[in-house]
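**Protein record**
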Amino acid sequence: MATKSKSQAKRKPIQSYAFIDTNIFLDFYRAKTEATLSMIEKLDSVKGRIICTYQVEMEFLKNRQGEITNILRDSVLNVNSNLPAVISDTQLSEALKIHQKDIKKKKHQLEKQVLNLVRNPGKNDRVFKVLDNIFNSKSNHVLTRDMPVRQQIKKRAWRRFILGYPPRKNRDTSIGDALNWEWIIQCAKELKGKFIIVSRDSDFGSEFSGNYFLNDQLKSEFRNRVGKKSIILTRKLSDALKLLEVHVTKEELKSEAEVLSITSQRPNTASILEALNKPLFSDESKEGFKRMSEKLERFKEQMQIISQALRGRNDDL
């Protein structure tokens, strides 16, 4: 019986692994359609190929309740049935009162659902349940606090942080992003396959005309420390799911695009901190104020001289 040559033998598909940043998980609380939520549940089927850290878990748990309470803030449920006296249409007024009662009922139901999400996430929060499975996975590429390698990863993260290496913002006070990157490097050394980072954080790279590019320094470092393995950056969870061989529907792609549109209009933490730390006046303005202050001081001195001269003249009289 003839044996198959190496070229004829069926090659095994290259395995893929994905690191998903916290901001991607939090976006599920901003989704407006069921299609987006179905994507988070698909992650459960490939949780064995998700690279994760306890840092991502901490950031998710820290910000989760805030995103949930934003649902109430962003939901406008209100009808004012108190029409001005000039409008004498009593039928319209009565109809509005009926709608107002119904809206109050719906608002109460919404508040109750939000309370259930906060009070008992393990039972009521679909996003929380899937991520809890990922965070508590027994996979070797999910970094937990009880793993001995954790201390080594923290030391590397701290070293790159104080040296100013990316991923890091100029005014960062946390080594969180550095820790995540060091763990990605560690996993890439030990695992065979392709790697994908899903993040909307500019620390990891940039976007141009719908294309995503890993930071040049990070790309060079990955090549030097890991080798010629493939690593890409994207802002779309759907891209990661496709590489993980999970089918993504047209409805899910459309819903994800809507979420991306919403999040792109919201200021992120980095931009807020940058605005708060930005000087109130430019250097040019400061120089102008300085010159104006000097002129005022000279004017005050001249006024004092004039005042003294006038006082002396009055004494002579």
